[in-house]
């Protein structure tokens, strides 16, 4: 909860001010044992080289294999924990407006809205197996204007959020965000400026997402820069959402398109390993406009 997070933050700040910490942060102190652990294989290999007894060499070689496996397992857990912490921070900073605010075509009488408010499942983002693949700011082309949006790409869906300035600061969440070393620099800047990410549309599952590149010739004629399109389809292959996105540069655009395309390929393969690339792309037609 927020209160526990704040208590932990204040406790960490108090501990880091202690002279025994020598001005090191908690993250620095936690890294030290891991750095020593990774040196063990080098030490054991030197022992193996200098050993003359074959029995001893075999024993040391077995130990080296176990240590290498332990280090690989530990590195995997550290990466998972870092990703999990990032997703938790994102969840604290992303707001889910009611459906009648996200979709102007939806009408709900004022007297019924309190009973129908969206109750986003707690821990929606923080599934133990979910991985954060990419995130960042883009422009969303609208009617005569470009909205600042923040995209979050997971290994199973893409989420588009609208960047909004809030009138009243939520001090606890923002303080946690500002002190977090793992926060994305763009998101860190937004938090510092008192911004939040409001969900713009429903999450797009990767097996329902089509990606279209817009050729520079057509983009320039339409007044677009470094643009591509994300299409949300339902199970019947009908388009239910279409988003024209603009990146800050050609390199940024290619990075986003590559990340999304790779995520779709991996997700599709994991869902149906027997499906061939031809079958998976048959409904996608051309990826170029």
TrEMBL record:
Which SUPFAM superfamilies does UniProt cross-reference here? DBL homology domain (DH-domain) (SSF48065), PH domain-like (SSF50729)
Task: Give an example GO molecular function.
Answer: guanyl-nucleotide exchange factor activity
For biological process, the GO terms are: Rho protein signal transduction
Stretch list, region Disordered: 270-289
Entry's PROSITE patterns? DH_2, PH_DOMAIN
Record InterPro entries: DBL_dom_sf (IPR035899), DH_dom (IPR000219), PH-like_dom_sf (IPR011993), PH_domain (IPR001849), PKHG5/7 (IPR040181)
Q: Which residues are in the DH domain? A: 16-74
Low complexity: which segments have biased composition?
Answer: 278-289
Start and end of every PH domain?
131-265
* Protein name in UniProt: PH domain-containing family G member 7
According to its UniProt entry, this protein's organism is: Callorhinchus milii (Ghost shark)
